[in-house]
Amino acid sequence: MRVFYDQFEIVNLWGVDLPEHLDDVYRRKARYAMVFASENYARKMWTNHERRSLQTRALEEKDAYLLPVRLDDTDIPGLRPTTGYLDARQHSPEDVARAVLVKLSMPAQPRKATTEREPVPVPMSIRARQRLLAERPSGWEYMLLADRLWNAVQEREPRFLDFELGYARSNGAYVEREDFLHFGIQRLAAAGELISKAPELLNHRNQQ
Fold first, then answer.
1. Is residue 50 within a helix (H) or strand (E), and if so which, with residue range?
2. 6-105 — its CATH code?
3. Helices 140-165 and 126-135, interaxial angle, to 10°?
4. 150: how many CB neighbours lie within 10 A of its CB?
5. How far apart are CA 104 and CA 110, in angstroms?
6. Residue numbers in the chain where pLDDT is lower than 50
7. Tens digits of per-residue pLDDT, 117-167?
8. With contact defined as beta carbons under 8 Å apart, do 100 and 91 qualify?
9. Given this model, what pLDDT does residue 165 score?
10. Helix (H) or strand (E) holding 154
11. Per the database record, which ranges form the TIR domain (predicted)?
C-alpha cells in the first residue's frame, strides 16, 4: 500500500508550499485518512490544518473516509462521537495495522459525480447504433462493443439450436460421441484465449 506520512516525505516536502500541498493530499488524493485523536492532535497547528481538509472531504463522501484511532477521550472539533473508531487503549498497534489492511482489501467505491447522468443503453438496433455513434456519450465504446457482442450472439442462435437438435456438422461429419471431450477441450481453449484478451481490449489507455 502507498502511505502518506510526513516523516517519509521529508525530501519531497522540502521547499513545497505545505498548506496547499497537504490540502491537496488530504482533500483530493487519499482514499482514507487515519486520525490519531488525542490531546496533542487537538492542540497542534498542523493537525488542525489537516483536520479542516479532512472534514471538507468527508462532507463530499457518502462512504467512510475518516478512520479515527482514539488515544484518549479528547474532544476533536468536527469528529462526531457517532463515528466508528478503534480504541488504541484496547487494541495493540498490530491490531490497528491488521484492521488497516482489511479495510484496504475492500473494493474501492468509485467517487460519484456531482450530477447523475442517465445511463447509456446498449443499442441493439441500427437506429440506436447510429445515434450512439453520432452522440458518443461517456463510455460509448463499451456500449458499441456490447452491441456487437449481442448481435454476434443473435447471429449464432440458429446454429446453436441446430446443434441442440443434432443437425450441426463439422467438416461435413458429425462429432462422434467418443471425440466430443477432445473437441470440447479444444473449443474451450480457443474461447479462453479470446476471453483472456478482453481486459487488454477494455483497458482505458488502449481505449484512448
1. helix 45-60
2. 3.40.50
3. 160
4. 13
5. 14
6. 114
7. 566 677 878 888 888 888 888 788 888 888 888 888 888 877 777 766 665
8. no
9. 66
10. helix 140-165
11. 2-95
